[in-house]
Amino acid sequence: MEELKEVNEGRVFEKRPKFLLVISILSFVNIGVSMLTSLFGVLGGKPSSEELEAAKLQFANSHEQLDALAKSEKVDMSYWSDVLTKLEIMSDNMYANFSMYNSLILLVAIFALLAVYLMFTGKKLGFHFYIGYCFLYVIQSYFFTAPSDVPTFVIVLNILYGGIWVFLYSRNLKWMR
Questions:
Q1: What is the pLDDT along the chain (177 residues), one digit of tens a residue?
Q2: For residues 111 and 34, what is the distance between their CA atoms, to the nearest angstrom?
Q3: 7 - beta bridge partners?
Q4: Contact between 8 and 163 (Cβ < 8 Å)
Q5: Burial class (CB in 10 A: 0-12, 13-18, 19+), 116
Q6: Could you count the other beta carbons within 10 Å of the beta carbon of residue 129?
Q7: Is the N end or the C end of the chain the one with fewer CB atoms within 10 Å?
Q8: Cα separation of the two ends of the chain
């Protein structure tokens, strides 16, 4: 792929790769939604007791459906039952620390926004910040929940998700300074 160059006042500027533009826009949208959601969570306050009860009922219903599936199909669903229990514990911890949880997500999202902006403007430092953001994204589950109560697959999915984005951004490192 040939990179186009732009000449302005005797200086040569390489144009921003289109792929970087696309993934930056996707990142800005994703980070913006995350920021708005967490900001509304911080400003809106803790969910009502009715909403908390509805969440508890949903988890109980999911446990019942999982048990019914295990009995009807005669398969061992103990792993998924354990995952569901851990997700319920994580949810309870999030609700117990609702404002702090949303504040942390907001701060991590602002850090990500800075990282993507720096990469978008051609600064390699943004890529390193983005790696830091991905690390924070993975460990933010541990701030309010004990490590034994975080399902392994949640961490693996977070690592894969962050790794894919780091890989995508790394394709543009040669353009960044």
A1: 444 455 455 455 578 999 999 999 999 999 999 999 999 988 888 888 999 999 999 999 999 999 999 899 888 888 999 999 999 999 999 999 999 999 999 999 999 999 999 999 999 999 999 999 999 999 998 999 999 999 999 999 999 999 999 999 999 999 998
A2: 12
A3: 12
A4: no
A5: buried
A6: 19
A7: N
A8: 19
